Amino acid sequence: MNHTARQSVYKDALDLSGTFIRRTSMRGVNFSGADLSSADCSYADFTGANFKDAVLSKTVLKGAILTGVSNLTKEQLAQAVTDKSTVLPSYLQ
Amino acid sequence: MRAFSTPMAASFTCDVMYWFWDQATSEIVRNYLFVAGGAFGLWLAWLRVTAANRQAENQLKQTELSRRAHVAELFNRAVGQLKDKKLEVRLGAILTLEQVCRDFPDLSGPVIKLLTTYLKQNVVRYGDKPAPADVQAIMDILQEFKT
């Protein structure tokens, strides 16, 4: 779904810990400081999302699309559950 | 003062002098009256503007109160509908909240907080099927308002 870009007025970090959000589209979402621990995000589309200081402890990212994401670090990825089908951003391949 | 040749001439001269004096005095008085009238008019205008401003402020307060009451009603109704068993009712509630975010961007924070809490409290494991419409609708709100 295409959305008109709006300036975010919601500054608090998202808390999606423990959620089941497989195969959803979260393109361009700002996950700065967000808690995604233990969330099942398999096959979710995170294209262009911002993961600055996001907590990815035990986050399932199998088959997730992480193309073009920003501020995602190796340390964050190491805490998450990934597999071969996880599409990593070019700087982490 | 020079002596007049006849009393008639003196009287005429006095008349002329009084006439000039009257003219000058009346002009000064008239000018003062103009100034006083202008000042009075300005004061009246200021009173009127102040009253109009007060009325406009009251109107704005009233509008804000109505808006808050309306949004609170929408919010409460949506919260109730989020618990509904029917997907279409839940989806309708989420779409209503999305519209609230669009109409009142300052309220997108509480809406996002409500919807993420809903996701956390109502975990539905739908396996490898596509995400249910309500879950994706919440993600659509995040895509639009949390960028």
Explain the overall architecture.
The complex is a heterodimer of chains A (93) and B (147). Chain A has one helix at 74-79. Chain A is built from one helix and no strands. The longest helix of chain A has 6 residues, at 74-79. Chain B has 147 residues and is mostly helical. Chain B is built from four helices and no strands. Chain B has helices at 7-82, 87-103, 108-121, 133-145. The longest helix of chain B has 76 residues, at 7-82. The model of chain B has no long low-confidence stretch (mean pLDDT 90). The chains are: A little secondary structure (93), B mainly alpha (147).
Task: Please trace the helix and strand order of chain B, writing H or E for each element.
Answer: HHHH
Helicity of chain A, as a percent range: under 10%
Inertia-based shape of chain B: rod-shaped
Shape call of chain A: globular
Number of strands of chain B: 0
Strand residue content of chain A: under 5%
Number of helices of chain B: 4
Beta-strand proportion of chain B? under 5%
- Along the chain, the helix and strand elements of chain A come as H
- What is the overall pLDDT average of chain B? 90
Uncertain regions spanning at least 5 consecutive residues of chain B: none
Estimate the mean pLDDT confidence of chain A: 91
